[in-house]
Amino acid sequence: MITINKLEKSFNKNHVLKGVDLEVRGSGIFAILGPNGSGKTTIIKTILGMVIPDGGSIELDGKNIKGNWSYRNSIGYLPQIAHFPENLTVKEVIKMVKDIRGKRGDEQPLVERFGLQPFMSSRLRNLSGGTRQKVNIVLCFMFDSKYIILDEPTAGLDPVAMITLKELIHEEKKNGKTILLTTHIMELVEELADEIVFLLEGKIFFRGTLQDMQEMTGEAKLERSIARILLRNNHESKEVITVKA
Amino acid sequence: MIKIFKYSFFDLMRSRWSLIYFLFFAITAAALLYLSNDVSRAIISLMNIIIILCPLIGTMFGVMYYYNSREFVELLLAQPIKRRSIFLGQYLGLTVSLLLSFVAGMGLPFIFYGILASPELSNFLVLLLTGGLLTFTFVALAFLIAVKNENKIKGFGFAIVVWLFMAVLYDGLFLLSLFIFEDYPLDKFSLAMTVLNPIDLSRILIMLQLDISALLGYTGAVFNKFFGTSLGFIISLACALLWIVVPTISMVRVARRKDF
Asked: A Gene Ontology molecular-function term (chain A) (predicted)?
């Protein structure tokens, strides 16, 4: 369970998170959505301890993550951009992350699924962006972590890899994982997400299922629902709507 | 930390810059040795190269490496590992790989020349020591600057200015102030000024070791008079170590509070 309490964060004058409260309980896929600059990545990065909050707290399975690092053993993270030490080979990077985690990790099935076998011995600087992202996917999923955090996971992937990734995410959900996902691709959300958390101007504006959102906005397509929220938000007062806690 | 160190080190040893850095020192040292045919002269010429070049290379590689490995650091930050270990590991990985190129580049020509059996061996070792200390210091300073500055151009510029200031401008300003305030007793002032610049400090360290009073210069002479050769050597070494420890600790502290 991830519990976020009154999370505050400013970058200089830019007040990104204005007291976010969020509780993610049980398994499933939770999509964190919102317009650019609404604080999606910031929330994810505070959970990972990469961004240090100004106020509020985050608990993972009841333990405050502040000043703690071992909790990241239970998190797999797939970042937006994949960059590695240029002169290491794919095999070595996988070994390195295993070394750091001190766990065995099972990369072989993932390597085969994403067709990375021919690249295992090539240096990372010689790989294309999409191939690097596949390496990242392997690093993210190979430890059987309880929590999986995906930040724009499909960037740079070809359609085949994208389908494989979607299957993988589905399987992980079936295995009882808690998956947090941010993306701008609404089809992905419609296909995958069990619940939507919609951020607007540093606060949670909406939380509920896809259906809840459609009912609220009266639009069948998620993309349109969101556009409607954003447009309406310009006129109405900004209260937090929680359809389902 | 050791794990991060190990992989950064392997990564860097395979980069072609390590080889270029190694070849540069090997060729320069060999040329100076065999052309002058005089070990102590070669050591003095090399000293002048080292106290300028080791800081410059340390600064440039430090800043470049930090900015290049930023996304990788983000990947590491998401792993169960302390922040301190990541940054110290990378710092040591870079410094040690530079050091290895430097020591191997300098060492091989001197070993072939027969330094191991020569009475100049200890002088040569001090030369290597100062090069090493300077590399540690300036990589730490470069990391500190890069961690503090998100903007690459700014970080790069600032790091180069720091190097330029310490390697070139400082001496000029120092001499100028000695000249302006020549009516006052300046012993303690110049002692303080020397300690405040790691490059000057290294120069004095080598000079005290070589015991060449003609080359000591004003500050060296003051150092010598004040502390005597051996105490002066120990004190300047201690200050040089402080120049490594303080920037490294500051770098880790800044990194600990930083958002990525």
From this structure: ATP binding
Percent above pLDDT 90 for chain A = 17
Helix axes B121-148, B83-113, angle to 10 degrees: 150
- The answer to whether A32 touches A43, Cβ cutoff 8 Å, is yes
**Mean pLDDT, all residues of chain B:** 88
Give the per-residue pLDDT at A242: 53
- Tens-place pLDDT, residues B232-242: 778 888 888 99
Q: Which residues contact A206 (CB under 8 A, 6 or more apart)?
A: A196, A197, A198, A213, A216, A229, A240, A241, A242, A243
For the cut 50, the answer to whether the pLDDT of residue A244 exceeds it is no
8 Å CB contact of A87 and B260: no
Are A131 and A105 in contact, with CB atoms under 8 Å apart?
no
Q: Which residue has the higher pLDDT, B226 or A122?
A: A122
Q: Are strands A63-64 and A55-60 parallel, antiparallel or unpaired?
A: antiparallel
Of the residues A44, A66, A83, the best mutation for testing chain B's interface (the one with the most B CB atoms within 10 Å of its CB) is A83
Q: Is B15 helix (H, G, I), strand (E, B) or coil?
A: coil
Q: Which residue numbers of B have CB closer than 8 Å to A's CBs?
A: 3-4, 7-8, 10-12, 14-15, 68-72, 74-83, 257-260
B174-191 average pLDDT score = 82
Q: Which two tokens stand for residue A225?
A: 């629902």
Helix (H) or strand (E) holding A240: none
CATH of A2-242, one of 3.10.105.10, 3.40.50.9100, 2.60.40.1740, 3.40.50.300: 3.40.50.300
User: C-alpha angle with apex B84: A18 to A88, nearest 5 degrees?
Assistant: 105
Predicted interface score ipTM higher than 0.90: no
State how far the alpha carbon of B69 is from the alpha carbons of A16, A119, B61, B63, B94, in Å.
26, 21, 12, 10, 11
